[in-house]
Amino acid sequence: MIGILVGTNRVGSKSRLVAAQLVRLYAKLDQKIEVIDLGALPKEAWSGTVFKKLPLSILPMVRRTVDCKGLVVVYPEYNGSIPGSLKHYIDILPYPEALARKPVCLVGVAHGAFGALRASMHLESILFYRRAAIYPFPLYLPKVDELLDGRCGIKREDIQKKMLEQSVGFLEFVRKSAL
């Protein structure tokens, strides 16, 4: 099973639209998908006591993250970094077992011309610390507003091809990581 993590809790997020397109793509590749959407984090996730004991309401989302064989993180760049909600979610995941040696694929979404490159550097550092196996071919989607065709997703064939190539390559990476 592949987990697709929507790396923001912002309402109306472009990352959510890209993640939905990736869900359809992985389904066409005959993959079972679990969507892990930070927009669905219960309010208890933000409690000051969450690091002492995870509330029961958070456990299903955490379990889906821990149980997936590979994790695709679709994240926006906010002020040159990742959203605080994504960092917070990674922080509440059990250490080290949640991400240690888990194959992780990165898809960065940005309004600017660099396509979440700066955010990617921060996220890769965090995932490296958490001992994740980072797929070495991230996908950066710059000027995402120009790429998205309404609420349907990205229609540009060159970007769809890159998404497919990354997805096929990541599935092979997951398979080899399991050996």
From TrEMBL:
GO-annotated cellular components? cytosol
Could you tell me which residue ranges the NADPH-dependent FMN reductase-like domain spans?
2-135
From the UniProt record, which GO molecular function terms apply? FMN binding; oxidoreductase activity
What name goes with this protein? Flavoprotein
The species is Methylacidiphilum caldifontis
Q: What is the lineage of its organism?
A: Bacteria, Pseudomonadati, Verrucomicrobiota, Methylacidiphilae, Methylacidiphilales
